[in-house]
Specification:
Order of helices and strands of chain B: HEHEHEEHEHEHEHEEEHEHHHHHHH
Largest sheet of chain A: 6 strands, mixed
Structural class of chain A: alpha/beta
CATH superfamily of the largest domain in chain B: P-loop containing nucleotide triphosphate hydrolases
Largest sheet of chain B: 5 strands, parallel
Structural class of chain B: alpha/beta
Strand content of chain B: 15-25%
CATH architecture of the largest domain in chain B: 3-Layer(aba) Sandwich
CATH superfamily of the largest domain in chain A: von Willebrand factor, type A domain
Number of domains of chain B: 2
Radius of gyration of chain B: 21 Å
Number of strands of chain A: 23
Number of helices of chain A: 23
Strand order of the largest sheet of chain A: 19-18-17-21-22-23
CATH topology of the largest domain in chain A: Rossmann fold
Shape of chain B: globular
CATH class of the largest domain in chain B: Alpha Beta
Distance between the termini of chain A: 60 Å
Strand content of chain A: 15-25%
Helix content of chain B: 40-55%
Strand order of the largest sheet of chain B: 4-7-10-1-11
Distance between the termini of chain B: 62 Å
Oligomer: heterodimer
CATH class of the largest domain in chain A: Alpha Beta
Radius of gyration of chain A: 30 Å
Number of helices of chain B: 15
Largest interface: A-B, 77 and 72 residues
């Protein structure tokens, strides 16, 4: 049924990838492989191809757990009761974990066919059981639900899957080679998951013309006649298979001297890796490479050569990298310098560490000089008597400043069920998705919790009339699953585009911050809306949409100039938020207000009513009463002597979280927590 | 029931040559893995895809099989799949029918797409029965997703999975089941409503950007034809019958030529250079250009790829593959990018 396999040996280039896969194939103790990188770089082809070169395994036909007949202690009930069935040789299993897999299918769960027909509780083995002694391949592992990643990584590192759910309590061996792929653009894996992968490789397309042509030719040849193509590479495949088998055989005798062990420890310490996993994985990987080469000893050179595989994804970004790099970085160069992303990141990190003033691109052109800086009017209500309209009249469009990783922002969990997808806040899910957390009464969703239903029906079995089944169910027995999953939020960006934002590159930095928030929104699959206010009123630049791209585009084009109608902005935002809530009463919008707080245009006109800022505060207080909406104020005012603290007061009135632009960065999370305590 | 709704003939669509070409190439060569049509509202996107049904070739299938298996499929698969449906395998009846266009509605739930367990039967009779989903129906056919950018995220994930592997795996609710699902993915979208995620984008072999026709005469003839069609669809279709037949036979001829198409190494070097200059992720771009160029040659009745085929193929295969940040727009002018990149480098 499946398409014919593309031979592993016929993959051109991608040497790191192939080596990493061979290492874990020889020595699964070196942890799984995480493949990061572009699309279309033979990631899954290579992982699949591995099956062919792994030695076959002995299995008793019919065994649901792929038990190893040579380890009678670990055998399942089936194998114990079928000792007479002779084991056969077959290919190792290759399992792809579909992203939509539910937890009971991954770990195993109640076998309800058996439960219904015999009333017996038995475990239906899941994917982890099926992958035992084979390969478990997870495409886009960074998109997988957190709780699934947790379960799988647990099993991968312990080699044992423990089940405690749906009234079943059991464990079975689950030793498999874990291969995950991810595209970093779609959001990163959490560091603790990253750390669990023993090796990581970054793949990218081949840059050489001739090599690319060869690649195309091979692919074309394979596509037109897979059989003949596989035939052609059969001898090479066979050779590699033999090499692997030999390596596996001598692996237990490979030794690491204490000198090399010390070297490994020092290497890990120098690279600022967290914990000790790196040391262990590096040692195991080194053994595997030695075994592949037919050596019984591991030397420093070998450790150095493969260290990037183990260290690349663990290295902590320590603020200033040690100025004179110790000898090993040169060895790592071959992998790194090709990767522009890394360099960019380093650049950014460095910039981030520098004081903000040096960072923003050239401040607004000299024209804006005639807009007096706030220091000329240090009165408590400066915005009002601050300046003339003309000074702000001209419009400018500022470039988008540097972007950065945004800290976590989510709404609190509640008991409402929602439909939707996304990756930001936890919520009860109304579709058949997400983690099964408990069961509840039947609401007609069709998502039946079998274990709970059976339990509910059990006490009445004696009194009920039997049909042909072991259990008689009635409607009142039916229980449904209550599931929890992450969903996207509605994010309303309310951007101050008044002239004061143009000063001192404030807008550039703010745009950078908003862009960062938008990138984050894209990764979390949020819906976004963009509202800006300047001159006399507020505009809805973009109504609520999933098109984060559009928001980004509009942001880039957003002009700045004019006075600050803060109240108008607030009321427009309120209207938009209210509309969103009418459309979807279960939504939990987050409003992010980016401003310096210097509101100087009131809704009513200045002659009557309140002073503009007071009016805004009043509006803000009124808006804060709806506790379905969460607010965050991002203050763009630079810290310094001339600080009016208006945004803080606004945040207080809104009941909002208050941030400075820098606070949004994930790295400064600790500081925020400290402040809040 | 649905069959009776008259379909606007493919041959009668005015203009939009690139879109038509993209679709035709995919019919000739299903390994091109689909086409994404990006464009404004009212540019005959959906009309064109639905009209495909008219000019599609015929295939042989096992009669009444919800998995659209070919009679050449190996016996084990056939048996396994009929068992999942609770059917007995008897002697196979074969029927010949046109390739199907299966439409995936935007609101489709995941279990409708991948298939699920027939729960009612499970509870009543204690049997596990699989209820095949849309992916089963689309095997060996065309899966058409209107407004593909509005598709629920998890449905997208499922599509990606099966498009990549040619197999649809159901792993949920105690069901573990797989069936072949090799389909040509055709998606339409209006970019104003949001972009696609890069991976899904990459799964589409070709991508065309279309816009409304600016030529006055053409616009008039669009209106005229539409009016005629609405007046009397049957008559209108009849008047285009000749064109439709010609198109079908040209497609069939191209399908025959395709395996014989040859190419030179120089051309491949050009493809590789082109991809490098433009800045494309991975190698799928190269491979698709080669395939598309071969198909183009076959479409034009030639047995050898010429450089114009490569140019044209690149135009179709690269716009959505050019490397960009998640929030950047999709390029519609390849040449510009190419010049920019090469100058920047030099």
């Amino acid at each position: 049924m499946a398409k014919p396999l593309y031979p592993f040996v016929a993959i051109s280039g991608q040497d790191d990838l192939k080596e990493a896969l061979l290492i874990t194939a020889v020595n699964p103790a070196s942890g799984g492989v995480l493949i990061r990188g572009e699309k279309g770089t033979a990631k899954s082809t290579a992982a699949r191809g591995l099956i062919e070169i792994l030695p076959q395994i002995k299995v008793r036909p019919g065994c649901p757990y792929t038990c190893d007949p040579d380890y009678p202690l670990e055998e399942c009930d089936y194998c114990k009761s079928h000792e007479d069935v002779a084991p056969v040789l077959r290919n190792r299993p290759f399992l792809t974990l579909p992203l939509n897999a539910t937890e009971d299918r991954v770990t195993g769960g109640l076998d309800f066919e058996v439960a219904l027909s015999t009333g017996e509780r038995r475990n239906a083995p899941g994917l982890l059981a099926a992958a035992h002694r084979g390969i478990l391949y997870i495409d886009e592992v960074n998109l997988l639900d957190d709780h699934l990643v947790d379960v799988i990584l647990d099993a991968a590192s312990s080699g044992w899957n423990i089940l405690e759910r749906e009234g079943i309590s059991m464990g079975h061996p689950a030793r498999f080679i874990l291969v995950g792929t991810m595209n970093p653009e779609e959001g990163d894996l959490r560091p603790q998951f990253l750390d669990r992968f023993g090796l990581s490789v970054t793949v990218e397309g081949v840059k050489d013309h001739e090599a690319r042509v060869d690649l195309m030719l091979r692919r074309e040849e394979f596509d037109s006649d897979p059989g003949a193509f596989r035939e052609k590479y059969a001898p090479q495949t066979e050779a590699l298979r033999y090499k692997l088998k030999e390596a596996k055989r001598i692996l237990p005798s490979v030794r690491i001297s204490s000198r090399v062990k010390n070297f490994i420890a020092a290497l890990c310490a120098e690279n600022h890796v967290a914990g000790h996993r790196a040391d262990l994985f590096l040692a195991e990987a080194a053994k595997a490479v030695a075994a592949l080469g037919g050596f019984f000893d591991v030397d420093e050179e070998l450790v150095l050569r493969i260290s990037p595989l183990v260290l690349a994804h663990r290295r902590r970004d320590v603020a200033p990298p040690p100025p004179p790099p110790p000898p090993q970085p040169q060895e790592e160069e071959p992998q790194d310098p090709e990767d522009p992303k890394d360099e960019e990141k380093k650049d950014e990190d460095q910039k981030d560490n520098e004081p903000q003033e040096e960072n923003p691109p050239p401040p607004p052109p000299p024209d804006s000089d005639n807009t007096p800086e706030p220091d000329e009017s240090p009165a408590p209500e400066p915005p009002e008597n601050n300046r003339q309209d003309e000074g702000y009249a001209q419009e400018e469009i500022f470039a988008i400043g540097d972007t950065f990783q945004v800290r976590k922002m989510e709404t609190a969990k509640d008991r409402l069920r929602r439909r939707g997808s996304g990756r930001r806040s936890r919520s009860r899910a109304s579709q058949k998705q997400g983690r099964y957390v408990k069961s509840g009464p039947n609401l007609g969703q069709g998502d039946i919790a079998l274990d709970a239903t059976l339990r509910a029906a059990a006490p009445y079995q004696i009194s009920r009339e039997r049909r042909d089944l072991a259990i008689t169910l009635e409607m009142s027995d039916i229980r449904e699953r209550i599931r929890e999953k992450k969903m996207g939020n509605h994010l309303f960006f309310m951007v101050d585009a008044s002239g004061s934002m143009g000063a001192r590159g404030r807008m550039t930095a703010s745009k950078g911050a908003i862009m960062s928030l938008l990138l984050d929104a894209y990764q979390k699959r949020d819906q976004v809306a963009l509202i800006s206010f300047r001159r006399q009123g507020a505009t809805v630049n973009l109504p609520l949409t999933t098109s984060v791209d559009m928001a980004g585009k509009l942001l880039a084009e957003m002009p700045v100039g004019g006075r600050t109608p803060l109240s108008a902005g607030l009321s427009t935002t309120h209207r938009e938020v209210r509309n969103a809530l009418i459309k979807n009463p279960l939504a939990r919008p987050i409003v992010i207000l980016i401003t310096d707080g210097r509101g100087n245009v009131s809704l009513e006109g200045e002659s009557k009513g309140l002073a503009p800022f007071e009016e805004a505060l009043k509006l803000a207080r009124a808006m804060s009463t709806d506790d379905r909406v969460k607010y965050a104020v991002v203050d763009t005012e630079e810290p310094g002597v001339m600080n009016f603290g208006l945004a803080v007061r606004l945040a207080e009135a809104l009941g909002a979280e208050y941030f400075r632009t820098e606070d949004l960065k994930a790295q400064t999370l600790v500081d925020i927590v400290r402040q809040q305590m | 029931m649905k069959k009776n709704i008259p379909v606007y003939p493919f041959a009668a669509i005015v203009g939009q040559e690139r879109m038509k070409l993209g679709l035709i190439l995919n019919i000739i060569n299903p390994t091109l893995s689909g086409v994404l049509i990006r464009g404004e509202k009212g540019t005959a996107k959906s009309t064109a895809v639905r009209a495909l049904a008219d000019i599609l070739p015929e295939i042989e299938v096992i009669k009444g099989d919800p998995f659209q298996l070919s009679p050449d499929e190996d016996d084990d698969t056939i048996r396994e799949l009929s068992e999942a449906l609770g059917r007995k395998t008897g002697p196979l009846e074969v029927e010949s029918r046109k390739v199907k266009v299966v439409e995936l509605p935007v609101g489709a739930t995941e279990d409708r797409v991948v298939g699920s367990l027939d729960l009612e039967r499970a509870l009543k009779s204690g049997e596990k029965r699989v209820e095949p989903g849309l992916l089963a129906a689309a095997h060996r056919g065309i899966l058409y997703v209107d407004e593909v950018n509005l598709l629920d995220d998890h449905v997208v994930d499922v599509l990606l999975d099966s498009a990549a592997m040619g197999v649809n795996t159901i792993e949920r609710e105690g069901v573990s089941f797989a069936h072949p699902a090799q389909f040509t993915l055709v998606g339409t979208m209006n970019p104003e409503e949001g972009e696609l995620r890069p991976q899904l984008l990459d799964r589409f072999g070709l991508c065309v950007n279309i816009e409304g026709i600016l030529n006055l005469d053409d616009r008039v003839s669009v209106m005229e034809r539409r009016a005629k069609f609405e007046d009397d669809p049957a008559q209108f279709n009849l008047s285009f019958q000749k064109e439709s037949q010609e198109l079908t036979s040209r497609i069939n001829r191209a399908r025959e030529i395709l395996p014989k198409v040859t190419f030179t190494r120089e051309l491949l070097v050009r493809i590789a250079k082109f991809c490098l200059e433009v800045g494309v992720d991975g190698h799928r771009g190269d491979i698709i250009i080669l395939k598309a160029a071969k198909t183009l040659a076959a479409w034009n009745g030639r047995e050898e790829i010429e450089s114009q085929d490569v140019e044209k193929a690149a135009e179709l295969a690269l716009p959505h593959r050019v490397r960009r940040q998640p929030l950047m727009e999709i390029a519609d002018n390849l040449d510009k990018i190419r010049k920019m990149r090469t100058q920047g480098a030099g």
